[in-house]
Specification:
The structure is a single chain. The protein is of the alpha/beta class. The protein has a 7-stranded parallel sheet with strand order 3-2-1-4-5-6-7, with helices on both faces. α6 links the parallel β6 and β7. α1 crosses α6 and α4 packs parallel to α5. The radius of gyration is 18 Å and the shape is globular. The structure holds NADP nicotinamide-adenine-dinucleotide phosphate. NADP nicotinamide-adenine-dinucleotide phosphate (NAP) binds next to α1 and β5.
Length: 240
């Protein structure tokens, strides 16, 4: 018998795929959401074969800000949990009108619309995990708009955590480098953790109702130092 349905946004992300395995292993149903129908179907078939749980695919471009986005939840009879892994990335050097629009639509607008709708669904318990980034901790010359989008959602979620709604559990994962498409071939990536380990850390944090955690853990130390570096020193560490 299955327990709940995990709705996984950005389900073709390697971290999301591994998280789907954790959820399925614990006998939850899955709804995989993303743009790439073929890849989503492959992941879903694999999940059904390995874990024998229901796994649906929902193909949608999350750059839309229409009501269609909210259909993701409408078909469910079960109570849903929400794993938010979808994200757009463009570094500051490659920003254009289009990429700025996409970053804000995908990383902030669609994310906030979906969170708001999800948390207002009539169900006994809500569990949400948001994949943020250490880039949200301090503006970097390299990627401050991306970091800003993550910081915006984090701040929104922090307010919801402060409201302390009973049975609404929100976990923020502040990720350092993880070995995925996003970091592949990127200069300066000194150690990239495995997506599977990251997904397991997310599952563990969620079961313990953690509010916020860093993965890999050592990023907590790095970001604690970086956050308190005086700006005149921080400026010298920038790339220009
Ligand atoms: N890897 C890291 O080092 C790292 C570090 C910090 C934070 N994170 C965060 O971890 C999460 C997962 O990232 P990842 O590293 O696994 O990168 P990824 O493979 O690029 O995953 C991003 C996911 O978002 C989906 N997506 C992007 N735009 C979309 C849209 N318009 N509509 C629907 N889906 C869309 C992608 O789908 P498509 O397959 O269709 O492109 C993909 O499934 C992201 O939130 C990222 O910010 C990653």
């Amino acid at each position: 018998m299955t327990k709940r349905t995990w709705v996984i946004l950005g389900a073709t992300s390697l971290i999301a795929e591994q998280f789907a395995h954790c959820a399925a292993q614990n006998q939850n149903s899955l709804r995989l959401v993303g743009r790439d129908k073929e890849q989503l179907n492959l992941i879903a078939q694999d999940v059904r074969l390995r874990f024998n749980v229901p796994c649906e695919v929902h193909t949608i471009d999350l750059a839309q800000n229409t009501e269609k986005l909210l259909d993701i939840f409408s078909a469910s009879k079960d109570e849903c949990d929400l794993f938010i892994a979808h994200s757009d990335f463009t570094d500051n050097d490659h920003l254009t009108m289009t990429s700025i629009n996409n970053l804000i639509k995908i990383n902030i607008l669609s994310t906030v619309l979906l969170i708001h709708h999800y948390l207002n669904l009539d169900q006994q318990k809500h569990r949400l995990i948001y994949l943020s980034s250490v880039a949200a901790c301090r503006g970097r010359s390299k990627n401050s708009l991306y970091g800003g989008t993550k910081a915006a959602v984090e701040l929104y979620l922090e307010g919801l955590q402060q409201a302390n709604y009973p049975n609404k559990h929100i976990t923020i994962a502040r990720l350092g480098f993880i070995d995925t498409k996003q970091t592949y071939g990127v200069p300066g990536v000194f150690y990239a953790a495995q997506p599977k380990d990251c997904a397991h850390a997310c599952w563990k944090a969620m079961t313990k109702n953690k509010r916020l955690f860093y993965y890999p853990k050592f990023w907590w130390m790095i970001m604690s130092i970086i956050r308190y570096i005086p700006f005149f020193v921080y400026k010298k560490m920038g790339k220009h």
